[in-house]
UniProtKB/TrEMBL annotation:
Binding-site residues, substrate: T58, D129, E154, K184, D188
Keywords attached to this entry: Cytoplasm, Hydrolase, NAD, One-carbon metabolism
Catalytic activity: S-adenosyl-L-homocysteine + H2O = L-homocysteine + adenosine
Protein's name in the database: Adenosylhomocysteinase
Organism: Thermomicrobium roseum (strain ATCC 27502 / DSM 5159 / P-2)
UniProt: NAD(+) binding residues: 155-157, 189, 218-225, 241, 276, 297-299, 344, 351
This protein's pathway: Amino-acid biosynthesis; L-homocysteine biosynthesis; L-homocysteine from S-adenosyl-L-homocysteine: step 1/1
Function: May play a key role in the regulation of the intracellular concentration of adenosylhomocysteine.
Keyword ATP-binding recorded: no
The protein's Enzyme Commission number: 3.13.2.1
PROSITE patterns registered for this protein in UniProt: ADOHCYASE_1, ADOHCYASE_2
Domain S-adenosyl-L-homocysteine hydrolase NAD binding: from-to ranges: 189-350
């Protein structure tokens, strides 16, 4: 590790005790990670390894940091989103001896400075949430490649970027797509995003969803969860999609499916969850209702074309925290939540701890897998091994007091045979 390391950069160290209490509260809902932490304390599978974790600095990720340290690692933490950091959590981690670089509301320059300060620790492993650390390493910090064994990725957006690197033969080390684990995307993306996004919208606006028309852009696992929860609160849900299979699934699930240019005319609330650029654009703002609310549940703040909206507006008014109204020349107003950033983390607290329990168990076990096998793996994007996925699901069921059946030897033999028929 080089000698220029900055120990930490956070907002207010005096918030540490408040952060500790909130971290302990989250830990009550994270039994799988607790069991892994107990195992790690005995086995120390990450002994001596430095891990840069570019994550949302929340109570849940704090518990992941403690688990990684129990495994023998030195976690170094930086923020993966300028508005998602919980300053009291950052303070608690620093007070407990972690290197943390995260301030809520930091600008883009500070965000990347923090990433570079984290990389000054010369990590062996990288936990990424959006692939900003991995792309920074490949573009600007190739000096750390000599120590990196591999990385893990938490988000759909980040996995897309990693696969693009691999497709261009530029990926320099193996990466595990934690986002694609069944115990991650089926639960975190669907139930976590669904609940936390609606939670954030209600906190920001105090809006009654019953009877409103909610437009969900994208019907991946995050979009499914948002649509499900909005409908559950009495909203009329419209889905927009570019994938015909997902669009058909949305129809079969009972939603109305429209192109965005048509949905824009009738929606009261718009939520993007596509991972793509300018899903809501100038042409849509031109036809939206007066008072339409737009927000984003995708990783980066590019899904809503706010530059175009700002150019169109004659006035901007902040009515409540993270609620900004853009007034157009014809008098119509369009309301943007959380500056177009991840609304569930900017306005609320992100996913419930019980669902992040599985996601971060995947992260912890993926790190152990890379520590043990990463040096032998060619540079590529890999799935979470199926045995890890099953282990996490089993541990979660056990923590919930739920038992399931097991195959008998006769059933196991039947499932792998070809002799049996009608």
């Amino acid at each position: 590790m080089n000698g220029r390391v900055i120990p930490y950069d956070i907002a207010d160290l005096t918030l540490a005790e408040q952060g500790r209490k909130r971290i302990a509260w989250a830990a009550r809902e994270m039994p799988v990670l607790r069991l892994l932490r107990e195992r790690f304390e005995r086995e120390r599978p990450l002994e001596g390894l430095r891990i840069v974790a570019c994550v949302h600095v929340t109570t849940e990720t704090a518990n992941l940091a403690y688990a990684l340290r129990a495994a023998g690692a030195t976690p170094v933490i930086c923020a993966s989103n300028p508005l998602s950091t919980q300053d009291d959590v950052a303070a608690a981690l620093v007070a407990d001896g972690f290197h943390v670089y995260a301030r809520r509301g930091e600008d883009a320059e500070t965000y990347y400075r923090h990433i570079n300060w984290a990389l000054d620790h010369e990590p062996h492993l990288i936990i990424d949430d959006g692939a900003d650390v991995v792309t920074t390493v490949h573009r600007d910090r190739r000096d750390v490649l000599q120590t990196v064994i591999g990385s893990t990725e938490e988000t759909t957006t980040g996995v897309i970027r990693l696969r693009a690197l691999a497709r261009d033969d530029l990926l320099a080390f193996p990466a595990i797509a934690v986002n694609d684990a069944m115990t991650k995307h089926l639960f975190d993306n669907r139930y976590g995003t669904g609940q936390s996004t609606i939670d954030a919208i209600l906190r920001a606006t105090n809006l009654l969803l019953a009877g409103k028309t909610v437009v969900v852009a994208g019907y991946g696992w995050c979009g499914r969860g948002i649509a499900l929860r909005a409908r559950g609160m009495g909203a009329h849900v419209i889905v927009t999609e570019v994938d015909p299979v997902r669009a058909l699934e949305a129809v079969m699930d009972g939603y109305r499916v429209l192109p965005m240019r048509e949905a824009a005319r009738v929606g009261d609330l718009f939520v993007t969850a596509t991972g793509n650029l300018h899903v809501i654009d100038r042409e849509h703002f031109l036809v939206m209702k007066n008072g339409a609310i737009v927000c984003n549940a995708g990783h980066f703040n590019v899904e809503i074309n706010l530059e175009a909206l700002a150019e169109m507006a004659v006035e901007r008014i902040v009515h409540r925290p993270f609620v900004e109204e853009y007034v157009l020349p014809d008098g119509r107003a369009i309301v943007v939540l959380a500056e177009g950033r991840l609304v569930n983390l900017a306005v609320a607290e992100g996913h419930p701890a019980s669902v992040m329990d599985m996601s971060f168990a995947n992260q912890a076990l993926a790190c152990v897998y890379l520590a043990q096998r990463g040096r032998q793996l060619p540079a590529d994007v890999y799935p979470v091994p199926a045995e890890i996925d099953r282990e996490i699901a089993q541990l979660k069921l056990e923590s919930m007091g739920i038992a399931i059946d097991r195959l008998t030897p006769e059933q196991e033999a039947y499932l792998v045979s070809w002799q049996h028929g009608t």
